[in-house]
Amino acid sequence: MSRPSKNNFSKFTPCHELEVANVMDAEDDVLDGKKKVPDAMMHTFRPGDDIIIQGEKGVLWHGVIEEIRVQHLKTIYKAWVAVRWYYGKWDIADRSIQNDVGECELVLSNHIDIISPQEVVSPVDVIKFMEREACGPSIASDDLFSQWSMDTTGKGALRVTFNACQVCKKAYNPDRDQQNHCCRCKNWFHIGCLEGIPGGKKGVEKMVTELSMESGLSLDSEFVSILCIPISRGKGYGVVGNGTVIMPIWEEFWKALEQMKQEMGLAWRSHITSDLLEQAGESHLIVCSLRLCSHARIPNSTSPEY
Question: Is the pLDDT score of 63 beyond 50?
């Protein structure tokens, strides 16, 4: 049966979910109908789900389900799935965009096709990476993730959407780039774009010391040194970076100030790793090269200016 046009598809009855049997690796008895399809091979799909799709010549593609609709025929009901395609690094013809995409990164396109449920292989986890945030869900080096989108014509990109570095205007590729987070303007900047910019460690130490003295909070030098670690990502820091570890420590500090505690307690130490201690001994905060960010500011809406 030929695929319906997008116009005809829109006239079919909407469906909220679809159960699909993936029998690609099933035994002959299952394929012949002599045995029931195992539960492990059954998948229920809904709009918004990320999926793996069987393409021509065994090529596997990734997409997200936009809609599921059912076509009413004379004797049967036929389901169809509208899929918005993800493009991998090597699916993008434009070299300038291709270079900004990581090996495990998928770019969500506006390219939509109507496919048969038989082409759906299985669900897949594509982690939505919040590119602008200082912390987020953990993303391992081999996890699939998506951070930006593009308008397309076939494999050619007409327009891309991403949060670029404010200096070089280039996207973040975790395989290629290392970036630092500016705690004042809350933007990310490539390390190369920050060369020559003075560090903000002394300002942070001064602010933390003054605030703790005002509230009577006792801090040890190790805790203060950890607060001065820059929030970094890319290359050795991983896709998301160390903000997921450092931000909770800042939250413990603000909580202690608000509750007028005299001691920090030990809760903050649950976030400490040997790698973090090494960073505390070697690094210093860097703030971005924009004039409005001449001093570091800790990313908390209630924190005072200094």
Answer: yes
Rounded Cα distance between 53 and 123, Å, is 9
Is the pLDDT at 23 greater than 80? The verdict is no
Amino acid at 250: W
The encoded tokens of residue 10 equal 């829109």
Kind of pairing between the strands at 42-45 and 18-21: antiparallel
**What is the Cα–Cα distance from 167 to 191, expressed in whole angstroms?**
11
Claim: this prediction has a pTM higher than 0.90: no
Tell me if 149 sits within 8 A of 110, measured CB to CB. yes
pLDDT score for 144? 97
H helix and E strand count, the chain: 7, 15
The answer to whether the Cα torsion of 64, 69, 154, 24 is positive or negative is: positive
User: Beta strands 107-115 and 77-87: pairing type?
Assistant: antiparallel
* Tens digits of residue pLDDT in 217-228: 888 888 888 888
- Classify residue 3 by its DSSP letter: P
